[in-house]
Amino acid sequence: MNLDDHPERGLLDRLEGYYDAVPRHGARVEDFGPLTLFVREGQGWPFYARPARRWSGEVSSAAVARVRARQRELGVPESFEWVAETTPALRSVIESSGLVVHEHPLMVLGPGAPVPAVDELSDGSSVRMLGPDDPALASALAVPHLAFAEPGTHVGLAGVSELAEAVRTRADDGSVERVVARIGAGLTSVAAAVEGGTAVCAGQHQPVGAVSEIVGVGTLPTARRRGLGLAVTTALVADARSRGVETVFMSAGDDDVARIYARLGFRRVATALIAEPAE
């Protein structure tokens, strides 16, 4: 389907504007015609390439090859992200270059969708937004890494001892300081389910104008199946709405995760694609 004929055309265009804007707070932008490469300035999670904003033509294999060569030159991951329905022809070009494409349900919560109160979901944990001085912030930034290392919704192996070690390992990498600065600038909000002073589930949203994406929601594997991810997501939605955000969206890890977030009123509108080299 052409984007002009897509029933969610206006929404997808707003999301494209967001995708183009949000990396610019911490990245250098390099123009490759139909593709834009975002290059992290300083330390932190490396960015990716994606279709240039408002580009209406095809993306050639030569353009993909130029971006990949530049990523190798910079020593950053050869990674591309885009929305399937917005740039439908890109997938075949990316796959022909040898990269592997992963699909993620792209889900949006409408501005009028009701969400339950956090205390209805939190299973006895203290779920709260974390300020820059909150002692649980370091564990809130570490716990998603353990969660994503054991993907899925099943109860896993990593627990509080592994989380404590992850916090110690990351103590001097500057990650907490970077998020503290982003919280102060209004670029990031962090929510966590806290038990005994430690975040056992956490996530973030990153507002740009009236749009914000919920990212990195992860539960300590031994604390899964208690509704903590939903409770943290609910807190993030409430915070986003308090800041004037009208469109809250996320990319779910898979269809099983998408079904969980559908319980909060998120609905699937498209498919987010991530391309990277085969492992």
Topology:
Layout: H1 9-21, E1 27-32, E2 35-40, E3 49-51, H2 61-74, E4 80-83, H3 90-96, E5 100-109, E6 126-130, H4 137-149, H5 160-169, H6 175-184, E7 189-195, E8 198-208, E9 211-219, H7 228-242, E10 247-251, H8 255-262, E11 267-276
Parallel strand pairs: 9-10
Antiparallel strand pairs: 1-2, 2-3, 4-11, 5-10, 5-11, 6-7, 7-8, 8-9
Helix pairs in contact: 4-5
| Widest sheet, order of strands | 4-11-5-10-9-8-7-6
Helix share, percent: 25-40%
Count of DSSP strands: 11
CATH structural class of the largest domain: Alpha Beta
Q: What is the CA-CA span between the terminal residues?
A: 32 Å
CATH architecture of the largest domain: 3-Layer(aba) Sandwich
Which properties best describe this structure?
three-stranded antiparallel β-sheet; 11 strands; alpha+beta; Aminopeptidase; 8 helices; 2 domains; 279 residues
